[in-house]
Design goal:
- With about 525 residues, the chain is mainly alpha-helical.
- It folds into three domains: about 100 residues; about 220 residues, Hypothetical protein af1432; about 80 residues, Alpha-Beta Plaits (2-Layer Sandwich).
- The protein is built from 14 helices and eight strands.
- The strands form three sheets. It has a three-stranded antiparallel sheet, covered by helices on one side. Strands 6-7-8 form a three-stranded mixed sheet, covered by helices on one side. A two-stranded antiparallel ribbon has the order 4-5.
- Helix 6 runs parallel beside helix 8 and helix 8 packs across helix 12.
- It is flat, with a radius of gyration of 51 Å.
Length: about 525
């Protein structure tokens, strides 16, 4: 009996557990169904919000697009209106031009009609005139009783007799004039004979050397990153060569006055010891003023030595500059003094005015002092300068024609050419090459200075480089680059040169204030 009771208890427990499990499962399943409904409801709610937000954003975007399209349409409408106004103005202008053309056509037709009428009138008058002349000739022939051929022969006989009478007078008058010119012609022959003599030359130099106390001074001259030497070259317009040669710095420039100024300035800087850009500018400016005084003194002393008085101050300055120019190692100022004395001696031998001859000889090469600043060769430049500063036509002509470039109108011009040949000789091929080289450098600087905004231009490195200084107030960096390109293009088109030329444009802005 005990065993079945145990089984019954077991079955009762199993049934209770199954019931409880079913009850718990139903409870949980009901909760799950409730949570799912809430999630779906919430999802539907969120989806509806998202849909409304998307519709709102779409409407806003549509409104913005519509506004943008309306703006573009308004712009197109304004542009079309502006084009329409321009077309109206153009149409009005064309109408006015058409009216002017129509007026001119009518005027032209009127003038042509008047010209045609005048031509007809002139034709009628010419016909009438020919008839009148023919009638008069017939009447003359009847009155004189001569034929046309007989009248022509009579007129020619009378003309021949008149010419014979005048021929004698012409011969006597021209004979007197020839006698007056005999002395002048003979003097010209003597002058031309003397002119055939010539002497020899050697080459001129374009460099000057400056001694320095030690090689340490070279570094100070160059300066940090080369600023000192750049400032010196910019201020003086020369090329400073610092190489391995001990105790020497080379100053190079084809302009002798500029080269001498740079040499003296460099000597002063070395003696002073304070070498920096500001001090360099001060020393160079001071040396330039001293050089101006020195040049005036040299010109005055040379004029006194040659016995030429009453010269303009500018002429004395230009003659003083010739002291620093050489022609195949011959100093041009000394050459001018020699030509002055030789011309005076020749004039005395030929019975001419020796004072005027000395004046012509002394001033014949004055153009070499400014031929790099003005267009043309030194004879034309010298003639222009002498005319500008009040010299007479005989002196001007001697400067213009002493190289036989023009027809000789004054005998002193021939004497100056002869004295010039005696003192300096006519140039051969070697001199011609040197003159072409100098002329090329001068043309290079003149071409660069012709551009607007350019203050200075210096040809250096034997013409292989040109440094152009521009006004920083007028020219900005972009314009400086354009000027560099334009100068290079102009050099390629206008000049003939070997190799290539470096064009370097320098632009600098400085601001200076003083603390008081």
């Amino acid at each position: 009996m005990s065993t079945p009771l145990w089984l019954l208890v077991v079955f009762v427990a199993l049934g209770g557990g199954v019931f409880i499990g079913l009850l718990v499962d139903r409870v949980f399943r009901g909760a799950a169904y409730q949570t799912r409904d809430e999630i779906l409801a919430q999802a539907n709610k969120d989806g509806e919000g998202i849909r409304k937000a998307a519709e709102l954003a779409s409407k806003e975007d549509l409104i913005k697009r519509r506004e943008q399209i309306e703006k573009e349409l308004n712009g197109v409408r304004e542009e079309l209106k502006e084009q329409e106004r321009r077309l109206d103005r153009r149409e009005s202008t064309i109408n006015e031009l058409q009216q002017d053309i129509s007026k001119k056509e009518r005027m032209l037709e009127t003038n042509q009609r008047k010209i045609s009428e005048r031509e007809k009138v002139l034709d009628v008058k010419e016909t009438e005139l020919a008839g009148v002349l023919k009638q008069q000739q017939e009447q003359l022939f009847k009155i004189t009783g001569l034929s046309e051929q007989q009248a022509t022969d009579m007129l020619l006989d009378r003309l021949s007799q008149s010419l014979k009478n005048e021929t004698g007078g012409l011969i006597l008058r021209h004979t007197q004039e020839v006698k007056k010119d005999c002395d002048r012609i003979s003097r010209e022959i003597v002058g031309m004979a003397v002119q055939r003599y010539a002497a020899a030359h050697t080459s001129e130099t374009t460099t000057s050397s400056v001694d320095i106390p030690s090689d340490e001074m070279k570094g100070r001259i160059i300066g940090r990153e080369g600023r000192n030497i750049r400032a010196f070259e910019k201020a003086t317009g020369v090329d400073v060569i610092v190489d391995d040669t001990p105790g020497v710095v080379i100053v190079s420039a084809f302009d002798a006055v500029r080269r001498e100024t740079a040499k003296l300035s460099l000597v002063k800087l070395i003696q002073d010891g304070r070498i920096h850009p500001t001090r360099i500018e001060e020393i160079v400016a001071e040396t330039q003023k001293e050089m101006e005084v020195h040049i005036r003194k040299l010109g005055t002393e040379a004029a006194e030595e040659a016995g030429v008085h009453g010269l303009h101050e500018k002429i004395l300055d230009l003659m003083g500059r010739l002291h620093f120019r050489t022609s195949y190692s011959q100093n041009v100022l000394r050459h001018s003094i020699e030509v002055s004395f030789l011309t005076g001696l020749l004039a005395e031998q030929l019975g001419l005015d020796s004072k005027m001859a000395r004046r012509c000889g002394f001033l014949h090469d004055i153009g070499k002092a400014a031929d790099h600043e003005m267009e043309g060769g030194h004879p034309a430049v010298g003639a222009e300068l002498l005319k500008r500063y009040g010299e007479g036509p005989e002196v001007v002509h001697a400067a213009l024609g002493h190289h036989d470039d023009i027809r000789v109108d004054y005998l002193n011009t021939v004497l100056v050419a002869a004295a010039d040949a005696i003192s300096a000789a006519r140039p051969g091929a070697r001199r011609e090459t040197l003159e072409k080289y100098i002329k090329r450098l001068e043309e290079l600087e003149t071409l660069a200075c012709g551009f607007p905004g350019v203050e200075l231009a210096f040809a250096i490195q034997a013409g292989r480089e040109i440094r152009v200084v521009v006004d920083s107030k007028q020219i900005n960096d972009r314009e400086a680059a354009r000027i560099s390109r334009d100068i290079a293009k102009a050099i390629e088109e206008a000049l003939t040169y070997p190799g290539e030329i470096k064009v370097q444009v320098l632009r600098e802005t400085r601001y200076v204030e003083y603390a008081k």
